[in-house]
Design a protein that fits this description.
By secondary structure, the protein is an alpha/beta fold. It has one domain: Rossmann fold (3-Layer(aba) Sandwich), CATH 3.40.50.720. It contains nine helices and seven strands. A seven-stranded parallel beta sheet has the order 3-2-1-4-5-6-7, with helices on both faces. Strand 1, helix 1 and strand 2 (34-39) form a beta-alpha-beta unit. Helix 7 packs antiparallel against helix 9. The longest helix is centred in the middle third of the chain and has 24 residues, at 101-124. The radius of gyration is 18 Å and the shape is globular.
Length: 263
C-alpha cells in the first residue's frame, strides 16, 4: 500500500468513536500504516477498528500490567512498532480547593504515571527507533479555571516527552507532544463548543477565528509520525489556531454563555 506511512506500524492508545485517537487512527490507515487501536472500553475500540480494518486491543492505562501487555501484544501482532501514541485523558473540571485525594490519584494515574509506563514499554519495543507522540493540551501552556490537576499532569508529561527525546535520540527515538485547543467535534469539549454563545467566546480568543477539529490534530500527528519530520523531536506542537497568543475565556464567561444558550 502506498502513502506517507506505508510500511509503518502504529499503536494508538485512547481510541473511541468520534475522538481524537480515532481520527488519528483513520488518518494513519489512509496513509498506509498498519494500525492497532486500544482503550479501556473494548466495545468502543472494536467499533473504531472495524471501521478502519485495524486491530483492536483492550488496555487500561492506569494498570501497569495492562499497559505492558498491550505493547507486547501489539508488537507481536504487527511484527514491530514504529509509532506509538497516547491519546488518553480525563477532562476534570473542579475548583482547586475541591480536588480530593481520590481525584488527584486518579488524574495522576491516568495522565502521568500511566503514560510514563506506556512510553517506557514503547522505548523497549523500538530498538531501531520510532516516533512517540503524546496528545497534550493548550491548557498545559495557558490558563483555564478549575482545571489545575488536568493541566498540571499534561504539562508534566510534556516534560517527560522532552526527557525521552533527550535520552533516547541516540536510539533513533523521536518524542513530541501535540497540544490541541478545544476540539469542536470531539467528546471532551465538543458539547460546549456546539453552543453558539460558547463558540463565540472561543473564536474571539483564537486568531484563526474557529475552533479546531479532530482532523487538524490528526494531520499534525501524521506529519510528526512521517519521515517528513525526521529531524523534529522534543517539541510541543500547538494545534490551536494560535490561541496561546491570547487566552482561554474565564469560567464566569463560560457559565454566562451556557446560561444564555439555555434561555
Amino acid at each position: 500500500m502506498s502513502g506517507r506511512l506505508a510500511s509503518k506500524r502504529a499503536l494508538i492508545l485512547g481510541a473511541a468513536p468520534g475522538n481524537i485517537g480515532a481520527a488519528i487512527a483513520a488518518r494513519y490507515a489512509e496513509e498506509g500504516a498498519a494500525v492497532v487501536v486500544a482503550g479501556r472500553r473494548p466495545e468502543a475500540v472494536a467499533q473504531v477498528a472495524e471501521a478502519l480494518g485495524a486491530q483492536a486491543l483492550p488496555c487500561d492505562i492506569t494498570d501497569s500490567a495492562s499497559v505492558a501487555n498491550l505493547v507486547a501484544t501489539a508488537n507481536s501482532k504487527l511484527g514491530g512498532l514504529d509509532i506509538g501514541i497516547n491519546a488518553t485523558g480525563w477532562g476534570l473540571l473542579k475548583p482547586f480547593g475541591e480536588h480530593s485525594r481520590e481525584d488527584l490519584d486518579h488524574m495522576t494515574a491516568l495522565q502521568f504515571t500511566g503514560p510514563f509506563q506506556f512510553f517506557q514499554a514503547l522505548i523497549a519495543a523500538m530498538p531501531q527507533g520510532g516516533s512517540i507522540i503524546q496528545i497534550s493540551s493548550v491548557t498545559a501552556t495557558i490558563m483555564m479555571d478549575h482545571h489545575a490537576a488536568y493541566m498540571g499532569t499534561k504539562a508534566g508529561i510534556d516534560h517527560v516527552i522532552r526527557c525521552i527525546a533527550h535520552e533516547f535520540g541516540g536510539q533513533g527515538i523521536r518524542a513530541n507532544s501535540i497540544a490541541p485547543g478545544g476540539t469542536a467535534d470531539a467528546p471532551m469539549s465538543g458539547g460546549g463548543l456546539g453552543l453558539p454563545a460558547v463558540q463565540a467566546l472561543y473564536h474571539r480568543e483564537i486568531p484563526l477565528g474557529r475552533a479546531g477539529v479532530a482532523a487538524d490534530v490528526a494531520n499534525a500527528a501524521l506529519w510528526l509520525a512521517s519521515d517528513d519530520a525526521s529531524f523534529v523531536t522534543g517539541q510541543v506542537i500547538h494545534v490551536s489556531g494560535g490561541q496561546t497568543l491570547r487566552r482561554n475565556p474565564s469560567i464566569g464567561e463560560v457559565y454566562a454563555a451556557f446560561q444564555h444558550s439555555a434561555q
